[in-house]
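Limitations
The structure tokens in this dataset are predictions for the assembled complex, not deposited experimental models. Users should treat interface geometry with appropriate caution, especially where small molecules or nucleic acid strands are included. An illustrative entry is reproduced here so readers can see what is and is not provided.
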Amino acid sequence: MIRLGRSSPLCAALLLLCFVHDPAAANEPLLSSPSGLSLDQALAQLTSDDEAVREAAIHAVIEQGDVGLIPRLDEIRANADRSVRQAIKPVMDLLKNRANLESPDQDVRRSAATDLGLSRREVAIPWLERAANQETRKWVRYTMEESAALLRLAADDQGTKLAAIDKLAALSSQNAVPGLKELVDAGRSADATKPQQELSLAAASAIERIETWAAWSNAIETIFRGISLSSILLIMSVGLAIVFGLMGVINMAHGELMMVGAYGTFLTQEFFKAFLSPGLFDYYFILAMPVAFFLAAACGLLLEATVIRFLYGRPLETMLATWGVSLILMQAARVYFGDLTAVVAPAWLSGGQQVMVGVFLPNNRLFVIALSVICVMIIYAVLFRSALGLRVRAVTQNRNMSACLGIPTRKVDAYTFAFGSGLAGIAGWALTLIGNVEPGLGQNYIVDSFMVVVTGGVGKLAGTIVAALGIGGLNKLLEPGLGAVYAKVCILVLVILFLQWRPSGLFAVKGRHADS
Amino acid sequence: MEKMNEQSSITPTESSPDGCPSRRDFLVQSARVTAGVGIAAMLGSLGQWALSYAADKEPIKVGVLHSLSGTMAISEVSLRDVVLMAVEEINAKGGVLGRQVKPVVVDPASNWDLFAEKAKQLLLQDKVAVVFGCWTSVSRKSVLPVFEKNNGLLFYPVQYEGEECSRNVFYTGAAVNQQAVPAVEYLMSKEGGGYKKFYLLGTDYVYPRTTNKILRAMLLAKKVPEANIMEEYTPFHHQDYQTIVGKIKKFAAGGGAAVISTINGDSNVPFYKEFANQGLRAEDAPIMAFSVAEDELRGMDTTTLVGHLAAWNYYQSVDTPQNKQFVSNFKAYCKKNGLPDGEKRVTDDPIEAAYFGVHVWKQAVEKAGAIEVDQVRKAVYGQKFLAPGGEIMMDTGNQHTHKPVLIGEILKDGQFKVVSRSKGLVKPEPWSEYTNPDKGCDWISHQGTYQKK
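Predicted assembly:
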């Protein structure tokens, strides 16, 4: 029912204008001044059955309301019927986003700007522009400008539209492409008017500019993704490379050692949750690294002392025995830990960095890349610059001679295996950022690890690095075209063919191996 | 005269000189034989009665065919727990037909061939009256021939892709028209956000492929242009979703896009993490998942999942008195039996379906008055039961269940907030109207799958 208050003549005039106005285009601001309705009247008329009256009320509320109005709107919404509820929701979102444009948190500001850009309400344009002028953060300002331009695209004035198209092209905005495509199609239809054709040409060239930029940014992102996947493969394989490459031990429990590292991270998180203040929670991740390393190294030492020690020089038996151990570890984790192992990534590793338009680099992947580089450098330092490394290499090249020279071969074996296992633990720790912590974690990665080590050449660390780069990069190059399943199939086929051609891998150890 | 007297004084006990048995002889012999037969008969019937007495009080065996180890263990162990809990409840109230129910639990260890072997063992060796089991469609398809050949009975509690209508299976989980189709219709509606572009993403096996086939047919029938539908599959245990999330970002540019996810198992976590870490929010492109329930959410970092959606027929947060009772019973059961995570266990749609499956079977047996499969089957049709999520009804012919459809939004604590509910129960259609409009499933008026005219 239409409630006619004291200003009934003004209301009637307003109503007349509403009926003249096309309700479908009601997103544009009313031509007349909306000041005829006070805020309270507008709120009352929100529940009107008449759509036109509702629209007028909505505009009044948007103009005069602020975020403090939301509880009252919520109340009205709760008691209203479906169509009114659906009409009120955008109003609430608008008011909320308008307030959030001034929030101290930059993510909230950016989020609000994005939502306003898609809201198709021109009333938001001045808010966005004002906020953009005050904005200090580059990418938040970018989003605000983009949203303002998107809203201007729906304006009536030809000049505004052309300026908006230009701006969106300059910003290389992907979000604008659907709207621009519509303009292009409208201009190309048979009964297009001259301004529409003009718009269509402008939009087409804008789309071209945006797509060119998109192609470049896509290429950069693909390279980054290849490097990220390679770093993950590298971190997983480097422990195996040491154990398999240097010692000739085929350790099928390598994946489970990674799982041990991941569960070590989980336990550290639980410890921090239970005993320390929430403010310190994010630091659990740093403490989890030595925990994961030493836990996995300890498991490795135990494994070496009980199982592998007796099976040196017998690779097939080692494989079988370690496979059995992996099954035991997996089921033990299942029984002991069960389901409830969610690892929450620390806040400083969530989200990402926007480097340029269309290139967004997640923090956790940047971290893993840095970690893999550091790991490789540490391993080189240990193996080639330290006393322990010298002994390890000596034992690997000629066990008997090393024993003659007084190197405790048994101890060196144990330390090498422990070091390789510790590296697996570090991999597990890093991978809690990417995936989930669950008993089957090792099984997901073991095949890839072996593939990288064998392709790279057993015995050479450089081979592992090159193989990881190659496989990771190739995988990410093929994936956009072939899809995930066939890209993986392709990689496996290529690896098989490569190994047929060069069975000893990329960087084979030259000459005869003293032990074999 | 004395000679004739002598002749007549011959007593009947002495055999007469010409060898014929006398009348007395005959009578005595017959009496002996009759007594013998009578005693034998009495002993026989006594023995029979004793045996049947013992048999009547013998427990009814039911099979539980869920993986307790291997990759599916994390999902299926809860189903075994709730079936055992339901059996305990039934036994506490006096059992079925006055007999106690004895569960026979086997572990097929997530190995699909082992599922068939164990099913055979349950049906032929243990001679169970009914089996509650299976989760993945692969496991169900492996055991189907075993059940059909040996006329067993299986209650299958998990949502699946349809296109099946077996005589020996009762499907207490959702068919595609009770989960996927209403979910997409909700997304397309104004209330759900009016989405126009759909990215169908799934793991590469039968359930996502079939579901997406049906969804694509539905979207095309609703005039969604082909360019607005994208379909993509990843292998099991896939961990690297960078490229796919990049594609979703591009697809969703400009708004109006939703992701329909049939990703299964441990690939869910890397997907949601990558999605959030690449800067996408639930408002940009909500992910509607069909394989993510409270049980899976327990083991996930839910910060990246808040605001995304799922479609099921039941949530732990459903507000009915019998659900509150059910949830607290289940938690208490897990705690009492020292099961992992005890009090912190949650209930979800497959758990509820497994639970009411047991009760529906019990009701059917009592209605039929027997445990024979054919009689019980007929008694299941049309059965109603007050399940924790509300009343459900077994269909009168196609062996599926009428269930409500609820769309839920994920909350930070791993629970769901119901944002939309179907009006009443949705009739199950194993053959979807979009891909197989000419097929139907009915065991009363037809022999299962039939061609509609």
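Some entries come with short summary sentences. For this one: Chain B touches chain A through 49 residues (CB under 8 Å).
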